[in-house]
Structures are given as structure tokens and as C-alpha cells.
Amino acid sequence: MKSTEFINLPLRFWIVALIAFINSVGFTLLIPILYPYAKAFGLSDFEASLLITAYAASQFIATPILGRLSDCLGRKPLLIMSLIGTVLANIVASLTPVAWLLFAARVLDGLTGGNTSIAQAVISDITHPAQRAKAFGVFGAIFRLGFVAGPTLSYFAQTLPTPPGVSSLGMGFLVSATMAAIAALLCLCLLPETLPRPCDFQLSWRDFGLNKVMQAAVNPRLGRIFMSTFLSGFTFTIFAFAFQPFFLNVLRQDAKTLALVFAIFGVLGFVTQIFALDPLTQRFSLVNILATTLAIRGVIFLLMPTFPQVSAFFCLIIIFGAINSFPLPLLDSILSLKSEPQEQGEVLGINSSYLSISNAMGPAIAGLLVSLSYKTPLWVAGGLTLLTAWFVMTNDQ
């Protein structure tokens, strides 16, 4: 990006990017602590997995509604409402003494969790078409930085002094609530309304796009790419949940070290996506890079339970972190190249829906497989990921 293009982005863009960064930090801060926090409530592995499923399913349902409301009532009030929902949900999660309120908190956070899509709508409002690709690129990089900072902050949150009624793991939820409150305050004080022309609110089934999502699977031009997104997300989320009980119970590590592992994921993924992905795309086809990345990911998933030692695990994690950030931007790039300019917004939205569905299904399946053994879901994720790599390679789109 040329420096002049970078500088010429409007001030409102930097405000909403900062809000999105703070929000992504607060969200990713929770990822390393959800499983051990659920276990502290005496939940089974399957019940713990449903905490993740409940959030993802609620978000999938609510995001179209929030997006439609923001088109009619304005971006700013919906963005503030969404952030306040996260504040309330995480305060409840940190203080609750009973498991059902923890589930209610995750559902509330999911139902009000469409703030990223609203932030992207703000960017569309305030940028010229010629600026938009650059603006979304910068926004995506800033948002990904939150995935680096969040797990690191999760580690430090567990070392903070705890107020009465809050555990060290519960402190992560309080810190996340604080981050969302700061973002809401910035939005309230600094971000002007950007919606040019509000409309009357009329929600219909078409706004959910469920028919489009189902029909997209058999689209002769793009259907296999959508399915690749689903399979990639599904296999990854099986691993993302299952490796936590494996790490804690088989490798005998603790929740603080788990947070550091997620931080390693974030740092390595950010660095390689920024510095390695583009040179690779200049030399190799996108499909070949994607299939190779998935194949490496699948082999790593298989090796982890085969060699259940801490030293082997961290060697594999370094390789995994370096290549794990590649599939999503590669799939988005392939879709962008295969679709017409006037349909790219809709196509990428459908692709996000497939990813959301996989995020809801994968953890629940992992929770069931963990009940068999801590190693089983990793072997299953590895085998399915290798099949996904083969599916991508046979894609003749």
C-alpha cells in the first residue's frame, strides 16, 4: 500500500478500526480460558464444547438481524448496543456461581456479537469505492493484531488480584468486559453516525440468507469453494477445542500455559500471513498453496496424539502456527477471483455463513469425541483435514 493511500483513509476509519481491535482483543482473550473455566463448573467435556457452539450458533442467527437493524436505525446505536451486550454477558460469566448462567451469558454475547460486520458496514459508508479494498485490507490486519494480543492478555489476566466471588479464570471475563466497555465509550464519544439514509425496518426470512446458503452448496461455479470453507473450518474447530483437554490432561499443562500457546498461534500466524503469504502466491497457485497448507495441518493433527510429549507438541505447534493463518485468506481470494465484481459482497457473506456453521458444529463434535478419549478427536481431525486437502486439490473450478 502506498503511504499516501494509507494516510488518506478518513479519521472515522481509524476510530472504527481501533474499536474493532479492542473488541477482537476482548474476544480472543476468552478463547484459552473457556474450556478450563467450564471444567471448574464441573461440566463434562461435551458440555464445555457446547459453550462454544452456543456462542457461534447465536451469532449466526443474530448477525443478519443486527446488520439489517444497522441499515435502518444507524450504525452507531447498533455498534454500541452490541458492545454493551458483550460487557453484560462477560460480567455475568465472571460472577455466576451456576453453569446455566454461564451458558446464558455465552448466548447473550453471541446474540449481540455482530459488531465486526457493523464495523465493516461503517467502512463501506465512509470510504470511496477506489479506497475500499485498501481500507478493508488495513482493517483486517488491525483486527488480526487482536488475535495476537488477546491470548497474551489472557495469560496476564489470570495473574491479576481477584475481587470477591471471581476466580483467576473469571478475571479473563472481567478484563474482556472492560475492553468492550472501552470500545463502547470510544464509539459513543468519537464515532459519528455514518449511515447516509436510514430506512424502515422490515425483517424477512430473506434477510437471514438461509436459502442462499443452502443453494450455494450446489452452485456449479462456487459450490465446491463454499464446501472447502466449511470443511476447513469444521476440521479446524474440532482440533481447536480438542487440543485443550489434550494439552491439560495428557500433557499435564495448566491454563496459563494454554493461553501462551494461543499467543504463539497468533504471533506466528500474523507474521507469516504478512510476510510469507504474498511471496508464496507470486510463485504458486492459490489452490496448491491451500491444499498443501491443509495437508500439513492434517499431518500435524495426526502427529500430536501419536507423540504425546511436551517437546514434540511445541515443535509441531511452531509449524502449525506458521501455516494456520493461510486457509481463510486464500479461500476468500479464490472466491473473489471466481466471482463477478457485482456479486462479491454477497458471495463473501455466504462464505462467512459457512464458516459460522462450521464454528458451531466442530466444537460439539469434538466434545463428543473427547468422551471416547483425549486423542481420538485429534486423529479424526487429522484424517478429515487430509481428505479436505484432497477435496481442494480435485477442485476443477
Describe it:
The protein is mostly helical and 397 residues long. It folds into two domains: 1-196, Growth Hormone, Chain: A, CATH 1.20.1250; 209-397, MFS general substrate transporter like domains (Growth Hormone, Chain: A). It has helices at residues 3-7, 11-30, 34-40, 45-73, 75-95, 99-111, 115-126, 129-157, 170-190, 205-208, 210-216, 223-250, 255-275, 277-283, 286-306, 310-323, 327-338, 344-370, 376-393. α2 runs parallel beside α8 (129-157), α2 (11-30) runs antiparallel to α9 (170-190) and α5 (75-95) packs antiparallel against α7. It starts with a helix and ends with a helix.
Order of helices and strands: HHHHHHHHHHHHHHHHHHH
Q: What is the rounded distance between the termini?
A: 30 Å
What is the CATH T-level topology of the largest domain?
Answer: Growth Hormone, Chain: A
- The geometry reads as globular
- Tally of individual helices: 19
What's the helical proportion of residues? over 70%
- The number of E-state strands comes to 0
Name the poorly predicted regions: 1-7
Strand content: under 5%
Radius of gyration: 20 Å
CATH architecture of the largest domain: Up-down Bundle
Mean pLDDT: 86
CATH classification, class level of the largest domain: Mainly Alpha
Overall domain count: 2
Sheet having the most strands: none
Structural class: mainly alpha
Kindly report the name of the CATH homologous superfamily of the largest domain.
MFS general substrate transporter like domains
